[in-house]
Prior knowledge:
Layout: E1 2-4, H1 11-30, H2 36-43, H3 47-75, H4 77-96, H5 101-129, H6 133-164, H7 169-172, H8 174-188, E2 192-194, H9 204-222, H10 232-255, H11 269-299, H12 304-310, H13 312-352, H14 361-364, H15 366-388, H16 396-428, H17 434-460, E3 481-482, E4 488-489, H18 495-501
Antiparallel strand pairs: 1-2, 3-4
Helix pairs in contact: 1-5, 1-6, 1-8, 2-3, 3-4, 3-5, 3-9, 3-16, 3-18, 4-5, 4-8, 5-18, 6-12, 6-13, 9-10, 9-16, 11-15, 11-16, 11-17, 13-15, 13-17, 15-16, 16-17, 16-18
Amino acid sequence: MPVTASRRVPSWAVLLICCVAQFMVVLDVSIVNVALPQMRHDLGLSVTGQQWVVNAYTLTFAGFLMLGGRAADLFGRRRVFLFGLGLFTLCSLVGGLSQNGTWLVAARAAQGLGGAILAPATLTLLTSKYTEAHARRRALGAWSATAASGAAVGVLLGGILTQYFDWRWVLFVNVPIGVVLVGASVVVLTDSRDERPVRRRLDLSGALTITAGLAAVVYGIVDTDAHPWGSPTTIVALGIGVGLLVAFVAIEAWFADDPLVDLAVFRRRSLSVANGIAVTLGASLFGMYFFLSLYLQEVAGYDPLRGGLAFVPAGLSTFAGALVGTRLVARIGPRRQLILGPLVGAVGMFWISTLSLGDGYLAHVLGPLVLVGAGLGLSFVPMTIAATQGVPPGQAGLASGLINTTRQMGGAVGLAVMATVAAGATAHVGRLALPAALTHGYDQAFLISGCALVAGAALALVLPRTAGVVPAGRVPDGEDATEPDGETHGGGVPGRVLAAKH
């Protein structure tokens, strides 16, 4: 049974604090994209440095997300929430004050760690406060809507702040919000933790090795623009990365008292396939936002505000696709929908990969954005259903947390591959004027994104035909279908709640 303080606090106040905190975390995944050209100009960032501004946050967020969930249960949700919020806010301030690229990337990495600690705590606070089923559904619904809107609002808000203030404000904006939240949390929140008969430990070694391993692999890939694939620098970086990932598997299999990931969970074919699909979706999503932001500003000449507004149709179509997908999956099943959704998105990616210098937004960008957004929205719900369906209650948190983690990691590694290919393609046609050469490079990145979505659809063919198929209105095995960013379907507990409970 959870141990909680006796002081009574308004439920709406807890909900508001948790929603705003989660909004900050999700917002920062995308808010920097529109500001990247200004960051590059002011700090002298290279093409590689630009993507590390995104990947530094993503890698630490994904690598420590599940560890953050366990910390909330072990050390107290309010305490961990305040620590994560304080770290996130402080690193936002430090990042906004950056004087060079290394400073900024380091601040973004630490900010991602703060987000990984903060995000699970917001959901465990909600579930410990809202114990009645109907009230919990309403609370989690509000939290889900906030989380779902964060990525789309991030691009637009980033454009507004960059246009009318400065790129530093895409980070500074978190500071006043964070300070107010810390003060409100001290007054409103009460602490709670799960008391377990057996002492549980944080698998810090597992979190560090997988994060460092992926970072080394990403570094080895992106550094190929300066060092060939066969160079000692690249080989050493990739070798270190692979070695750390092997060490992570060994730690989880044999050495961790309470492993971050129970590797036995991958024996379930539907879970393994769904996580493979999550990697492809993450790669495609990150690639689209990153490279299209650069194209619109560096090639098409958009200012930051106009560039942010250009992404609004993508956010709306993703939201609409998720709403339609929630109902459609009950009719055609997760397997068929996981073939349909990625293929719809792939059509949009292949379309946008034909961009040429001078192409207009309405004729060559709007349609692809809508298709990609709709395809991704259609895919999120069945992907998570397939991953969590039939998983024993003791592994439900692990299964749900993995979907979010693998999607983020797929985005980081996929972006590294696309950036490397784009830089190489641009250099290969250096005889062209710079805008035309950049467009050629971005087209190659969009083409890879489309191929990734086709690979995701192909993986769905391996899913069992009965994966996730249940009678309408039922939630099997006592678990709810979840969306990786926290959206619940059928009134369930979001993935990060389950991850935090694991």
